[in-house]
Amino acid sequence: MFLALSAGLGSWYTRLPEIKAGLGLSEAELGASLFFIPLGSASLLPFYSKIITRLGDRRTVVLSVLLFLGLITLPGMMTTQWQFMGSLYFLGLMIGLTDVSMNAEVAAIEKQKGIVIMSGCHGFFSLGGMIGALFGSLMIYLNVSVTMQMVCLGATLVFVMLPQFKQLIDADEPEEHGSLALPPKQVLLFAIIGLFIMMSEGGISEWSAIYLKDNLLVAGEYAGFGFAGFSFLMAIGRFYGDDLGIKYGSKSLVLLGVVLAVIGLALALVQSVWVSILGFSVAGLGYSVIVPILFSSAAKVDGIKASRGIAAVASSGYIGMLTGPVIIGFVAEEFGLANGFLFLLILTAIGLLLSTKAFK
Questions:
Q1: pTM, two decimal places
Q2: What letter does residue 142 receive in the DSSP assignment?
Q3: CA quadruple 107, 113, 114, 119: dihedral positive or negative?
Q4: What does the DSSP 8-state code read for residue 79?
């Protein structure tokens, strides 16, 4: 499920330069349009935990991921910016519900089976991003339309996932009362860190291809390599993250990850194609363990249901993705896209300071 969500998004991100040109959008207009993905996700923020409680973790994951793969075919069909924004809003609804429900599913599996798999599952999310980006690059090379690309990818992913749906379980936690109250202080700190980190991840995902193509003049079929490298090293870090977390502790691993992310973003700003691709890749390695640890840690805070703790962190992340692309778009319009990535570097550095307080 993690791989399917990310492969769909990664494949679609590679076509953003083409969609931008086809609709005649400026950087600021594209940023404003991309705003509607996290806006859709944010629309369900108060209801994630309630939906999962009503339908169950298993059913929610299955329904949301299938609807996501159907809706992601729509943006490529749109002919005006308003149609494009509307399709992204409905896509965002399913992205948010899929993300929260599958992370709650992982928390339920970890609790019931006494295992640690959160980082590994996020590793498949990163692997999916790499697969999707490379698949998108291949489709550009073969001159396949973005709609046909997404239909073929979606059908393949559904075929692969169908036998796995029976492996999912439902959480055994009782329904929580008084769920409108603010979460505990520690969860709020995790949420603020998630805000900055997921804003940065989203910024790289949505703007790295445009940065390489427009700023460094990379050919269209190679513009997705920055995101592919970002996703590849993120996947490697996440596959080892569970064991490293047990060995060195969550706090040490998060602090190291944030430092690597800062270094990677600094390299990405160097006006060299391969150094920038290396920088995006190093940033992916740094970010790799942070969000899984935030989700897992929020799910284990005493006095709060796992799905609600995860929803708090995911919600703040969507607020970050809500504002991130728009801010980067306007910064790019006024000061250049490189300064948009400098903004992400500063946010990540602030995340480093907050991490020293959040983890015990």
A1: 0.75
A2: T
A3: negative
A4: -
